[in-house]
Design goal:
The protein has one domain (about 10-205): Isochorismatase-like (Rossmann fold, 3-Layer(aba) Sandwich), CATH 3.40.50. About 35% of the residues lie in helices and about 20% in strands. It contains 6 helices and 8 strands. It has helices at about 25, 40-50, 105-110, 125-135, 165-175, 185-205, and strands spanning about 10-15, 55-60, 90-95, 115-120, 140-150, 155, 160, 180. Strand 6 and strand 7 form a beta hairpin.
């Protein structure tokens, strides 16, 4: 595991769009989601990245499915309140699960010397999972903030309605140690602070 995050580390926020709250679309008539604090965690991470002038990337989903709430032409395709794409951010639009398929995301990362990714967003078992799996396969040093992700219940082909927390936890378990390393928000902040502490020490040595 890396000992600090610096300018080669991008925060990647996956599909933080209003339409993810249409729980009946994603989870059926009894649609429900886990982790109501996911947005607050993501906003805190985003603020930390901005404070330290580190790279930020957004994916937005523009579905080709007629009934999907994740269409950029609809109000439900907008980013959730509090989230905005700033000048200098990487932003890509996708219409499949992976942020890398049909987009310039990989080229954008390479152009900026980004080799490490810290990922959060929606849904844990869909676009987050697919993007993290691809990132790991493509050689990125990838970290998942599970507390900054959420998903909905899923009804399987057997008709069993599986709780969103179970779906979320199983996805994280499948990804951790194989495609990424899972970190808590506090761990992520500590790794950024470690880089800042190193910079202060270097500057202090230069002055001496």
């Amino acid at each position: 595991m890396i000992h600090r995050f610096s300018s080669d580390t991008a925060l990647v926020l996956i599909d933080v769009q209003v339409g993810v709250d249409d729980l009946s679309h994603w989870g059926g008539v009894n649609g429900r989601r886990n982790n109501p604090d996911a947005e607050a965690v993501m906003l805190s991470l985003l603020s930390t990245w901005r404070d330290h002038a580190l790279p930020v990337a957004f994916t937005r989903h523009d579905s080709v499915e007629d009934m999907s709430p994740l269409k950029l032409s609809l109000p439900s395709g907008d980013l959730k309140p509090g989230f905005s794409i700033a000048d200098g951010d990487i932003s890509v639009v996708k219409n499949v699960n992976s942020g890398f398929v049909g987009t310039s995301l990989h080229e954008d990362f390479k152009a900026r010397g980004i080799s490490r990714l810290v990922v959060a967003g929606f849904f844990t078992n869909m676009c987050v999972e697919t993007t993290v799996r691809m990132a790991g396969n493509m050689g990125y040093d990838t970290y998942l903030v599970a507390e900054g992700c959420a998903t909905t219940n899923r009804v399987g082909p057997d008709g069993v309605d599986r709780d969103p927390e179970l779906v979320h936890d199983m996805t994280v378990a499948n990804l951790h140690g194989e495609f990424c390393t899972t970190l808590s928000p506090a761990d992520v902040v500590d790794l950024i602070a470690a880089d800042r502490a190193d910079l202060v020490r270097v500057q202090g040595n230069e002055k001496g």
